[in-house]
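Below is a concrete protein record.
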Amino acid sequence: MRKEQKRIFFKIKRDFIIRYFSLKKEGMTLIEALVGIALVAIAVIGLAQLFTFGILNNSRANKMANATFLAQQQIEFLRNLTGVELSALSGGNLDEQIDINNDGTFDYRRITVLESQGSYTEIRVLVFGPAQISTQRDELLANPFQHRVMADIRTIVAR
């Protein structure tokens, strides 16, 4: 009889467990759905922030590449000048406001400093963003990194 009671007990227990877990699998509760939605929302927000950060970094890299190109372009122009032409430019320093895309607003400010010493000329080209258009030239030359210089290239030309 005792074996029979154990068998019946285990059968009842097994039936209870099967019914309990089969009822549990029929659907999701509201709390489970809300937790799932919250986790998906957090993941999407993180990806959106990462995407925005990537766009800002690409934009900044593009501006720095353009500034470096403008500085290198000026140096190449000055390297192609003769010694007499370089000497004539050494007295006056160039300060240009450049509109790259012709939309009527200045995109960059390029300052070129020429110092002749004997048979060679030291050239320094600094390129700043549009925020420095109205800043005094001497202030920019004294503290270029404080004013967020985008390109600062130096070279020496011998003639």
Summary: The chain has one domain: 2-158. The helical segments are 2-24, 30-79, 83-90, 137-142.
